[in-house]
Amino acid sequence: MLFGKMLGTTTDISFTALLHLGTLLAVFVFAFKSLIRALKNWKIIVNLVISTVPAVAVGFTLDEKIERTFNDTKFLPIFFCTTSVLLLLASMKKGSRTLEEMSFFDALIIGLFQAIAIFPGVSRSGSTIAASLLLNFKKEDSLSYSFLLALPVIAGAGLLKSSQMDPKWFYLGAISFVVGLFALFLLRKIILSDKLKIFSVYCLVIGLVSFFVR
Question: I need a labelling partner for 47 at 20 to 30 A (CA). Which of 106, 148, 168, 195 fits?
């Protein structure tokens, strides 16, 4: 969206959804072991449903308004800087809780963070990982939960706009899969090596840039 503004182009949300479907496959590869773990524990499944509800509710009730924000950059500085602050605070936490210890209230809080991330400039993975870390969950489990949450949300975003997708864009789904694999590998390495502040600084810089290109 930001680079589209700089180049004088607009963001097509259905195009973005198609790229998300490619990313979905990449997330599935990374979340496979976590998915098996979840299927063995009904409470994790229930928590995932609870965490997904806020994003689904916001997506369906504010669909048109959200789509308009993808072509309006005036709120980008706020959203990017908000993500930066969340990641900075989360980087200071060293939790010990596991997914099996997550309460329904914890799941709802994480879900609310994810719902906010529907808007451009707020990182979905950054928000859910930050929320989990702030609730004192382990880095590994925070990452796993974020991956699991991504599956229904990204799939829903893609399917919601699937009827508007242009077949000529489908090859980009394969590209997004490859890029997604690399990005997830990098994300996992950064988080597990206690370098989350790198993403915080990145979001802050992008937030400042977006302020000047509005």
Answer: 195
